[in-house]
Specification:
single chain; 1017 residues; alpha/beta; eight-stranded mixed sheet; seven-stranded parallel sheet; 39 helices; globular
């Protein structure tokens, strides 16, 4: 009998046995026919509490309070679950006799996990609503704390998740989940996922640990990891968070990050937790602070941030988690609070440590160090975004004020060597790291797609420019002409011209018309301008488009009449400052300032809230520096960059788009108008080299910016294949009637429609995915590598599946609102105008940037020449050329005769910019070509027999001896013991086999190191 595709029952039997044999749980039985199934098995709980020495009166009072909390119909499920968790976590206060003190009855022994009673029951029939039967329920001391739905390996794990979610509905068995802390779903093919009560399907999590262990089913592996008695008790005690109506469990990186931090704290060591943008650093802060305060009665925790929004968020999260926190108004106020025993938990903004008017900062620091502030207790200071301001003067001030404190830094980006000295002085090395590439792989954040766009420019009317210049420069001396020349003769003046900005505005609006995520109004975008003046100009331009009322301006500017008192020229024209002032004045005229806020602050709060919650009503934010760090808005899908950026600033900015936000948000998109790829490349190269401080386990941030066309083609091919498989069972000749019969049955028989509902649901979902995948690259199918015949075929298939879906929807009487995507499809197919689109110059066909930059070694090459440019003739030549070019332009500008024809200067600047764009495009093509060759890892004429990386590695290191390489490959695969790496006895088996063939110890060592490094063996 085949063991492939076995029944769910086989999996369930194996899992029950695992809980008994490997984890030591008691087996309560098969409870399908048991009448009194409950989330509080009072007999089991009474037995446990009696064994702990509690009296019958105490136990009776405890059971009453527990039942009251679990069954309080006035509360939501979240409220009941939170109340039950509080009793589990902190114990039940009981008073059995008047006049006697209240006593605590502890339902779980948190300090000695093995002294609790762990048990499982299966097929637990739940009554009290529509009857359901969870596969497995986990009980601790008779209290149901975990529930597990299993599916066979051919059924999606999502079915198990959705079954758990429907079970939590009032009409089913919501009552049972008031005690449940962990909701599991699993199968043998996909493994295990976990969440808690109310966790949406898309937010269910996967554990990841000991990835090299591939011995058995992942389902068994991670049940054994998460449900081990010690681990389960620890997760329940230290890693459950109730946050503003949402119950949260830790992601695996948060768990191990906090575990590593706990070890540092025990040793009274500080350090840095680097968890990439969007991975939940604030939750790590909350859970770590709670642990410190609970485990050290003398501890005080002060959380220092540089953003008012985060300061408020931290206060809210801690308050909701039951931890009172004090927000301080200044550095002096914070120090005054720390000089008293309470409060134990405080937060403050970092800039409140600044002292205005300090001329000699070093003397100020020495003064602080000679008279440090008095603090009560053992002080732990958490510093958010520790790579920024806090590594500078303000941070030194904090360190001087609190010399005995343990500092823990949190950052979303790695530290470079230029940050290393101050950071090491204050924090120490890394405590734990979680790289961008890991977060993408774990689906914690989205991958990023990068696209460079070039906008060509030309002079419209040279004669009029010349006439204007001649009229304006009459009577000016050379110095005055030179000042005017400086105003004209900069690249930025050309790049910020009205015509160019018009093109950018048109480009953004065009994307909102044709890009599925934007045109459906589910997503929105941020445009980064180079200056406040440019941001204001952009805003004014967008006000003349359909974006009026749906676009906001957020900069550091706050209008003040003094800004323009000396700006008036009397020429009936506006200076830059006047333009900014007038635009802001008009913008804020109808804004009523909220208490304690300026008009500008009130307007910005309104715009940010609308952007985050109603993307259809706030499509675009125009910014300069604000919101590019720490601003989390899940709808934000596109970032348009029209500003030179680099290093931390660039990386943090592009991560504004990587937050998860539903199935239709597949990636964050970066559109670059400033040729920033070299900056991205250099930043990644630095992060990947030893310029990254890797103390205590730091590592490089492999930023993944996948090429749009490569990923787009993959998604389209997968979507088409999925639909073909879905429709394969339809009877020939596969016409409308046959499709209706397959997906609907007899449409007049409700049972037929109900029975075939899963097929229809899959059809609708798959068709929506196809429309999105096709819409993303419909106008670039040829560039994605499809032939003309393929394009015709694909268009026909898309139309056919859309038609099938419409027919099935109508036949079944069902509706599914996909109008936004369908309108977008029509727009892309019928009205796309290529001539209006700026030129795309990203040539990375079939290469992601992590392959392009990190895997190929280009990163190391770039890092080695940073600063010195040693050993790279092209880099040196480019530097010389740039210097010569600058000198030529400078000589031109110093020649007074040049002013007779100012248009020549403008032409040269524009021509130079165009030449650079072409040079940049060629550069991208060259580097992509080099990377493809390097990533291939083999010449074009490699033997077909060397068909794996391992065989090729052996061939390359055995003097191209193919026969020997194949012999060793076969031998090692034949004799290798399971799990041989790191086990000396098992490694010797392989070494002995190698010696039989090679007969030379040095050769054996060399080949063995290759085998050990290659996961193929």
């Amino acid at each position: 009998m085949s063991k492939v595709g076995q029944a769910e029952r086989v999996t369930q039997n194996r899992v029950i046995k695992l809980f008994q044999d490997q984890l030591g749980y008691a087996y309560l039985g098969e409870w399908s026919d048991r009448a009194s199934n409950s989330n509080l098995e009072e007999g089991l709980l009474t037995r446990y509490l009696t064994g702990r020495g509690y009296s019958s009166a105490q136990i009776s009072a405890t059971l009453y309070q527990l039942r009251l909390a679990a069954n309080d119909t006035k509360q939501s499920l979240y409220g009941r679950n939170k109340a039950v968790y509080s009793l589990l976590r902190y114990g039940v206060d009981v008073k059995v006799e008047a006049g006697k003190p209240t006593e605590k009855v502890h339902l779980i022994d948190w300090h000695n996990p093995q002294k609790n009673d762990f048990a499982v029951a299966e097929e637990v029939t739940l009554k009290g609503g529509l009857e359901r039967r969870p596969d497995i329920v986990l009980y601790v001391n008779g209290i149901a704390l975990g529930i597990l739905e299993l599916k066979n390996s051919r059924v999606s794990i999502g079915d198990g998740i959705r079954q758990n979610l429907s079970n939590q509905k009032p009409e089913f068995n919501e009552w049972f989940f008031s005690t449940i802390q962990f909701v599991f779903a699993g199968n043998d093919s996909e493994g295990l996922q976990y969440g808690s009560i109310g966790t949406e399907e898309k937010f269910f999590l996967k554990w990841k640990e000991d990835e090299a262990d591939n011995a058995g089913y992942k389902l068994d592996k991670y049940l054994e990891k998460m449900c081990a008695k010690d681990r389960l008790i620890e997760l329940l005690h230290d890693f459950v968070l109730f946050d503003g109506g949402v119950k949260k469990l830790p992601r695996v990186h948060q768990y191990f990050g906090i575990k590593a931090a706990q070890e540092h704290i025990r040793q009274r060591k500080g350090g840095i937790i680097w968890h990439t943008q969007g991975s939940g650093k604030s939750i790590v802060m909350v859970l770590l602070a709670k642990w410190i305060l609970e485990n050290n009665p003398n501890a005080r925790v002060a959380i220092i941030t540089d953003r008012d929004e985060l300061d408020k968020q931290i206060e809210r999260v801690f308050t909701d988690a039951g931890e009172p926190i004090k927000r301080t108004s200044s550095g002096r106020n914070l120090m005054g609070q720390l000089a008293q025993p309470t409060p134990r938990l405080l937060c403050s903004l970092v800039h409140k440590f600044g002292r205005q008017g300090v001329d000699d900062f070093d003397a100020f620091i020495k003064e602080l160090e000679s008279q440090p502030s008095k603090t009560v207790g053992e002080l732990y200071v958490f510093v958010d975004e520790c790579h920024r301001t806090q590594s500078g003067k303000l941070h030194r001030a904090m360190k001087a004020m609190m010399p005995n404190a343990i500092f823990v830094g949190f950052t979303g980006t790695p530290l470079l060597k230029k940050d290393k000295q101050t950071s090491m002085e204050i924090f120490g090395g890394y405590i734990h790291t979680y790289k961008f590439s890991e977060a993408v792989e774990d689906e914690v954040v989205l991958d990023l797609i990068y696209e460079a766009r070039d906008i060509d420019q030309r002079l419209g009317s040279e004669d009029k420019i010349d006439q204007w210049f001649e009229a304006k420069t009459k009577g000016l001396n050379d110095w005055q002409r030179d000042e005017l020349k400086k105003k004209w003769g900069t690249m930025q003046s050309v790049l910020s011209s009205r015509s160019r900005m018009d093109r950018v505005v048109s480009d953004v609006i065009f994307d909102f018309s044709v890009k599925p995520r934007l045109s459906s109004e589910r997503g929105n975008a941020i445009l980064v301008a180079s200056s406040i003046f440019e941001a204001c100009k952009y805003f004014a331009l967008f006000q003349k488009t359909p974006f009026k009322g749906k676009c906001a301006l957020i900069t550091s500017y706050n209008p003040n009449a003094q800004d323009v008192t000396k700006e008036e020229t009397g020429a009936n024209t506006e200076t830059d400052k006047q333009a900014i002032y007038s635009i802001y004045t008009e913008l804020l005229k109808d804004v009523d300032a909220k208490p304690g806020m300026t008009k500008t602050e009130t307007y910005e709060e309104w715009a940010k809230a609308l952007f985050s919650k109603e993307p259809a009503n706030m499509k675009l934010l125009i910014v300069v520096d604000k919101l590019l760090t720490g601003f989390d808005a899940p709808p934000c899908t596109y970032l348009y960059i029209d500003k030179s950026m680099q290093d931390h600033g660039l990386f943090q900015a592009i991560c504004r788009t990587n937050r998860l936000d539903g199935d239709d948000k597949d990636f964050g998109y970066i559109v670059d108008y400033k040729d920033l790829f070299k900056k991205v490349e250099n930043a990644i190269a630095v992060y990947s080299s030893d310029d990254l401080d890797d103390t205590d386990g730091g590592s490089d941030p492999n930023v993944l910016l996948q090429d749009r066309l490569k990923k787009g083609r993959e998604r389209l091919d997968v979507a088409l294949e999925a639909l073909a498989l879905l429709c394969e069972p339809v009877e020939p000749p596969k016409g409308e009637l046959e499709h209706i019969h397959y997906f609907c049955g007899n449409t007049e028989v409700p049972e037929d429609l109900q029975e075939r509902e899963p097929q229809r649901s899959a059809l609708y979902k798959a068709t929506a995915s196809l429309i999105r995948a096709y819409g993303n690259i419909a106008d670039e199918l040829e560039g994605a590598g499809y032939s003309a015949a393929d394009i015709v075929r694909i268009k026909g298939q898309v139309e056919q599946y859309v038609n099938v879906r419409e027919i099935i929807k109508k036949a079944s009487g069902e509706t599914l609102d996909l109008k936004a995507y369908e309108a977008d499809m029509r727009h892309l197919i019928d009205t796309y105008i290529e001539a209006d689109e700026p030129r795309k110059i990203s040539p990375f066909d079939n290469m992601s940037l992590v392959e392009l930059i990190v895997k190929t070694g280009i990163a190391d090459a770039i890092a080695s020449q940073l600063g010195g440019l040693k050993g790279n003739k092209d880099a040196i030549a480019e530097t010389i050329e740039n210097n010569v070019r600058s000198k030529i332009i400078k000589e031109h500008l110093n020649d007074p005769a040049y002013y007779e024809k100012i248009s020549v200067l403008l032409d040269e600047i524009i021509a130079d910019r165009k030449a650079k764009a072409i040079e940049y495009e060629e550069y991208l093509k060259r580097i992509a070509d080099i990377a493809r060759k390097a990533e291939a890892g083999q010449p074009d004429d490699t033997s077909e027999n060397l068909d794996t990386p391992g065989k090729r590695a052996l061939f390359n290191n055995l003097e191209n001896n193919e026969a020997l390489a194949l012999q060793i490959d076969a031998k090692v695969k034949d004799v290798r013991p399971h799990g041989w790496r790191g086990v000396q006895a098992k490694e010797r088996v392989i070494q002995a086999a190698l010696f039989e063939i090679l007969g030379d110890e040095a050769q054996v060592d060399k080949v063995f190191s290759i085998l050990k490094a290659n996961q193929e063996y």
